[in-house]
Amino acid sequence: KVEDILNEYVLTEETMEKIKLTIEEQMKFANSKDEETRKKSDLFWECTYVTGLMSGKENGQYLGLDLGGTNFRVVGTVFTNGKADIKTKYYNLPTELFTGPCSGIFDHIAESIEKFIKEENISSDTSIPIGFSFSFPSIQKSLKHSVLVTWTKSFKCPDGLGQDPVVMLEEAIHRRGGLSVPVDVIARISDTTGTLMAGNYLDHNCRIGLILGSGSNACFVEKVEKYNKLETDIGSDKVVVNTEWGALGDNGCLDFIKTELDKELDLNSNHVHSFSFEKLFSGLYLGELVRLVLLKLTKDGCLFDGQTTDNLQKPYFFTTDFVSDIESERIVRVLEKLELDTVATADDIAIIRKTCAILSQRGAYVVAIALAVLLKHMNLPEVTIGIDGSLYEFHPKYHDHILDVLTKLVKDTKVTNAYYA
Fold first, then answer.
1. Within 10 A of 65 (CB to CB), how many other CB atoms are there?
2. 44 φ, ψ to 5°?
C-alpha cells in the first residue's frame, strides 16, 4: 500500500521526457511573435530591460531593496573599480501587512530605508540610486516601471494589482516627508534578475538566475535576435529575460503529473489554480504536500498504527524545513514537534524518510528538466547558474538531484550550479 501511494510521485523516464517536451512547447509559445500564440503559455517571458552584465569597472554608492518574503532587506553597496563593499540589514514585515492595504507594505519599506540610512550613517549631497527587487509577477514597461499582476506566496493584499510598485514606493517616501538623504529609484527588478547579476559579479559565466525558496522563478541572458517580444530597439545585443515560470502549467499542460493530493493542495492554497509549477516543489508547498501524503498513509493504516495527532492534521504545520531536517538525518526533532516521537516505530521512520526523499526528488527533477530546456535554448559552451533561496540552501540533496538530471539531459554545455545568498 505504501508503494502504491508513493509510486505516484516517482517520475519515470517516459514522464520526464513528456515534461521536457511540454516545457519546450510552452517556451516556444511564450517567445512567439504572434500575440495569440503567446496566450497559449502561462510563462511571462518578460523583457527586464537589463541589457548589460558586470564589467568589473563599476563605481559609486547604491542602495538595494529586496521584497519577496517575510523579511524585507536593505543593502548598501559602495563600488570601487568593480569591487563591492556591502552592508545588509533585515527588517521583519509584520504579518498583518500581508493581507492589509498594500500602502502598509510600502510605508514599512520607506521606514526601513530611513532606519538603514541612520544606522549606517549614510550621507550624500546627490541622490543615491536605488534598485528595487520586487519579487511578484509584473509586466515590465521599462527598467524602472512595471505593473503588478498578482500577489504570490503569503501576500494577499486586497489592492495594488495594476499599479506600479516603484510609484507606490515613491508615494510612500513622499508621505513620510522624504528621507534624510536624497534617493532616486532607478530600477525595478525581480529577485531572480538580482540573483543573476550577483552571480555575474562573482562569475562572468553566470547567465541564469534561479530562485528556489518559498517560490521559484528563473531568468536568463538572451540574444536580442532570438527574443521575439521586443517592440523597440533597446540598443544592445543581449537582454535578461524573466520567465516567471512559477505559473507554468496553470493552463493544464502539466496536469498529467498531478496526483489527487497535488490537486487538494492547490484547492486549499491562497492562490487556487495559480502557480501550478511552484506547487510541485517550492518551499511554501513541499512540506504541506509531504504532510498530506503522510496523513493519507496514516489514515490508510500504513503509519503510526493509524493514529494521527492534531499537529499532523494542521495545514502547513509540516514545513519544508521539516523535510530538509528529515533528509539531513534529523528526524527526531520533527517527530517531537509532531508529538509522534513516542509513537513512531522503526518502520514508521523508514516510511517518513522515503516519503520525503521521493517528493523532494520529484520536485528537484521537475526544476532540473526546466533548466535543461533553458540551457539547450541558450546553446552556450559554458553556463553558471546563480541560485538563491532557502529550499536550495538548506535541503541537503537538491543540488545533487538537479545536477543528476542536467548531466543526463544537457551534453553540450558545461554547467555549474552556484549558491549566491
1. 21
2. -70, -40
Return the active site residues: 153, 191
Sign, Cα dihedral of 344, 350, 356, 359: negative
Can you read off the three cell numbers belonging to residue 52?
Answer: 548589460
Q: Are the CB atoms for 348 and 303 separated by under 8 Å? A: yes
pTM for the full model?
0.90
DSSP labels for 52-82?
----S---EEEEEEEESSSEEEEEEEEEETT
- Which residues have a Cβ under 8 Å from the Cβ of 66 and sit 6 or more positions away? 72, 73, 74, 75, 133, 135, 191, 194
Q: Which of 213, 29, 238 is nearest to 135 (CA)?
A: 213
Q: Map residue 375 onto helix, strand or coil.
A: helix
Residue 392 grid coordinates: 536550495
Q: Using N-to-C axis directions, what is the helix angle for 286-299 and 346-378, rounded to 10°?
A: 140
Which triple of cell numbers denotes residue 231? 517592440
Nearest residue to 181 (alpha-carbon basis) of 72, 62, 78, 89: 62
Mind listing the pLDDT tens digit of every residue in the chain (421 residues)? 999 999 999 999 999 999 999 999 999 999 999 999 999 999 999 999 999 999 999 999 999 999 976 678 999 999 999 999 999 999 988 889 999 999 999 999 999 999 999 999 999 999 999 999 998 888 999 999 999 999 887 888 999 999 999 999 999 999 999 999 999 999 999 989 999 999 999 999 999 999 999 889 999 999 999 999 988 889 999 999 999 999 999 999 999 999 999 999 999 998 899 999 999 999 999 999 999 999 999 999 999 999 999 999 999 999 999 999 999 999 999 999 999 999 999 999 999 999 999 999 999 999 999 999 999 999 999 999 999 999 999 999 999 999 999 999 999 999 998 876 5
* Antiparallel, parallel or unpaired: β 46-47 and 238-242: antiparallel
